[in-house]
Write the structure tokens for this entry.
Amino acid sequence: MSEEARVIQAIDKASVAKICSGQVILDLATAVKELVENALDAGASSVEVRLKEHGLQLIEVADNGRGIAPHDYEALALKYHTSKLAQFNDLERLHTFGFRGEALSSLAALGELSVVTRTAEQAAATRLEFDRNGKLTSSAACARGVGTTVAIKDLFGPLPVRRQELTRNVRREVAKLRLLLQQYAVLAGQAQLFASDQAGRAARLTLVSTSNAGGELRARVSAVLGAKVAAVLQPIDFELAAEGVKVTGLVSRAGCGVKGEKLRQFCCINGRPVELPRAVKALNDTYKALYSSLVGLKPMAFLCFELPPGTFDVNVTPDKRSVFIQKEVAIMNALGQSRGCKPGQSSL
């Protein structure tokens, strides 16, 4: 196109959908995370993730939540349609994982989206299919218990380069997904979470299982990561009363640090699993100062931050994993000092 011919004009809707959706759903882990969060927001006490061919062929997330009412079928996969938030100020009082109304519309644009759902008031379930724009194209009665199953076929099919990268690095992507699901299994409430992968003729491989653990943190760590990991953890519990902040969790005992692929340092804010690099750095720096002879070892950590509404912002990145926190420096300094208690003097 010549310089003279170039004019400012609106991008067509199909192109906008592909551009924006590729920013919301970054990889396999993000796709599954969004569906797991939807299941938890629906009140599910059991969530199952099923991959076929490492998620290249099929991703399914099934739950026993409330299901989707028929009056919501048409809007279900439309962009910026959600039941979780009506206006911007609602973010300060948010009690759900999702809030932007982007996930299902993005998945529809990046794969073949279908949903099977049933509420307690319905005698039968309904299978819904959507086009790339999130428009409902068909619905039919089918069998299913109360809850919802969302299926995505051919993830990133419309984006050949992204699809190629997923295919080339699929085992690494599954490993990244497994790590993310472990964080949700340990920190995101009392729901049971099971994830598996079926590849070729091999037996279905379990990626994550809470093994019917209850809501107690140590029990969930034991179920997800093993009894040996849970056995070397001790509690951390402190409060910044003036800030209305409370931190609880479990951290490795003295001399029980790990490194490499075994390291797990998970954080959540008000039950939302997030990435808190400053919290992790505070722990690692203190551990290093205390046990300088243990080169390269870092503490296992499972930390739950309780913050007052309006003191943090989760609307920072498309995946909602990064968070801005008011008075973060003071909170992380207190965290480092609590970790600095000498073993045997007091609990963390």
